[in-house]
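can u do me a favor
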């Protein structure tokens, strides 16, 4: 693998590094730009193509700025997409899904990314810092491993906008905590902090902020020391639900077309 060729795909919003079988992707502080910006989407898709094709990459570590996925960023993004300052609880009803290109791009990007992460034969690790809003809460549950800082928290912010739990949250969360608990969390809980997430099995460990990146890389390198056949077989056998995920995404799109 030519890591320099990969680095040429990077820009100010995406840094790329490689260390002993681990590809490290840092999306900086404006991950939401990747949802609708065509050039940035194309860059990300090209990176994932290299990930899938390269025998040198065993593990992909996703990182972002601690403030990159929080409620202020999400709120600004949603209001920009809807084209105006609309009352919070009626925002979902204000969008005609099939006619809102930006909204459709957001959902399609999340769903495409989730499917690529699940289908990849490489191990996906997410490093979580700061507040993680609903769509990225759901998306991170598609990773194979997740590590967080003590101040990380999941925000189920979709409720205050009248939106559905996107990012495939309603698909993945029941697999971790059970159907009843998942529904309760999605409808009645505002935040899940790092300790609660650890207790629920939603994250695999908590690292101190000062050592967070180095600890994530150390763990990723430990995983990458395992033989590729073992990694591939483990990934394939633990993601046998891919057809169910495809069906879920089809159902989601149909539901949105009917409701909005």
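np, heres the sequence
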């Amino acid at each position: 693998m030519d890591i320099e060729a990969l680095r040429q795909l990077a820009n100010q919003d995406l840094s790329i590094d490689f260390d002993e079988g681990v590809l490290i992707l840092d999306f900086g502080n404006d991950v939401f730009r990747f949802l609708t910006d065509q050039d940035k989407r194309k860059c990300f898709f090209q990176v994932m193509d290299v990930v899938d094709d390269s025998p040198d990459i065993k593990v992909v570590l996703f990182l972002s700025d601690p403030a990159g996925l929080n409620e202020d960023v999400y709120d600004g993004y949603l209001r920009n997409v809807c084209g105006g300052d609309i009352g919070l609880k009626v925002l979902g009803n204000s969008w005609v899904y099939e006619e809102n290109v930006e909204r459709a791009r957001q959902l399609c990007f999340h769903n495409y990314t989730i499917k690529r992460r699940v289908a990849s034969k490489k191990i996906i690790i997410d490093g979580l810092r700061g507040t993680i809003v609903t769509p990225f809460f759901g998306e991170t549950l598609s990773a194979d491993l997740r590590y967080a800082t003590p101040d990380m928290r999941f925000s189920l912010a979709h409720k205050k906008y009248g939106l559905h739990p996107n990012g495939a949250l309603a698909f993945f969360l029941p697999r971790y905590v059970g159907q009843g608990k998942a529904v309760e969390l999605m409808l009645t809980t505002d935040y899940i902090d790092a300790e609660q997430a650890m207790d629920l099995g939603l994250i695999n460990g908590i690292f101190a902020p000062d050592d967070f990146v180095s600890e994530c890389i150390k763990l990723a390198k430990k995983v990458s020391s395992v033989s590729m056949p073992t990694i591939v077989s483990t990934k394939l056998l633990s993601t046998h639900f891919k057809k169910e995920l495809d069906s879920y995404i089809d159902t989601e799109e149909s539901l949105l077309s009917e409701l909005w």
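Residues 94-98 have pLDDT under 50 and may be disordered. hope that helps!!
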